[in-house]
């Protein structure tokens, strides 16, 4: 039998798939802002053979170290905070970013990044971190770490728009090369 941490991780990964990329995998419908009704999500999970109780779902949301998911204030709806590859509108208000933001990646991507800048790829936004520690943790997942500094203050002054998701991830459409610098790691 799987231990509790393994089960929670598996549920979290599957929830990421469903709420960020493929709700149709279990027959779930998201609204235009990415919200699903909590009761509908639980019913769809059960029908797909992934029965989850409300308490287990609440634990996945509460225990996720990256706070990828959020419930509405009344708990009747749930969504992923960012990272979607499906068309949704998170309804975030533009915000003034910190002076510097950071992006962790793998060294094998640096040539392309310094040719094209940071692009959103299949997601809605480029994801940036307010701390080098968080950016490094993200970058290490992709291979040998490369840490980039983003001159967010200059980008904002030049008209680029930033948003901050509910879990503190900074989002923007793209980061042109002229705003990037490689940090020593």
From TrEMBL:
- Which domain of life does the UniProt lineage start with? Bacteria
As recorded in UniProt, its EC number(s) are 2.7.1.-
Q: Note the Pfam families from the entry.
A: PTS_2-RNA
The record's keywords, sorted A to Z, are: NAD, Transferase
EC main group: transferase
Answer whether the UniProt record assigns the keyword Nucleotidyltransferase to this protein.
Answer: no
InterPro entries linked to this entry: Ptrans_KptA/Tpt1 (IPR002745), RNA_2'-PTrans_C (IPR042081), RNA_2'-PTrans_KptA (IPR022928), RNA_2'-PTrans_N (IPR042080)
Molecular function as annotated in GO = transferase activity
Q: Does the keyword NAD apply?
A: yes
Q: Which family does it belong to?
A: Belongs to the KptA/TPT1 family.
Primary role: Removes the 2'-phosphate from RNA via an intermediate in which the phosphate is ADP-ribosylated by NAD followed by a presumed transesterification to release the RNA and generate ADP-ribose 1''-2''-cyclic phosphate (APPR>P). May function as an ADP-ribosylase.
- Specify the protein name: Probable RNA 2'-phosphotransferase
* Annotated gene: kptA
């Amino acid at each position: 039998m799987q231990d509790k941490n393994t089960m929670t991780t598996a549920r979290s990964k599957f929830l990421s798939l469903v709420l960020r990329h493929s709700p149709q995998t279990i027959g779930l419908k998201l609204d235009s802002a990415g919200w699903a009704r909590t009761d509908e999500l639980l019913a769809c999970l059960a029908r797909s053979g992934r029965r989850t109780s409300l308490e287990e779902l609440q634990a996945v949301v509460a225990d996720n170290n990256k706070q990828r998911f959020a419930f509405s204030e009344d708990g009747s709806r749930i969504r992923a905070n960012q990272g979607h590859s499906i068309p949704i509108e998170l309804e975030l208000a533009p915000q003034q970013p910190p002076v510097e933001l950071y992006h962790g990646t793998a060294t094998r991507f640096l040539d392309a990044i310094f040719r094209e800048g940071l692009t959103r790829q299949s997601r809605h936004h480029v994801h940036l971190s307010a701390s080098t520690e968080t950016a490094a943790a993200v970058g290490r997942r992709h291979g040998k770490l490369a840490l980039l500094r983003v001159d967010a203050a200059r980008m904002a002054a030049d008209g680029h728009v930033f948003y901050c998701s509910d879990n503190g991830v900074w989002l923007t459409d793209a980061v042109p090369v002229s705003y990037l610098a490689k940090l020593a790691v």
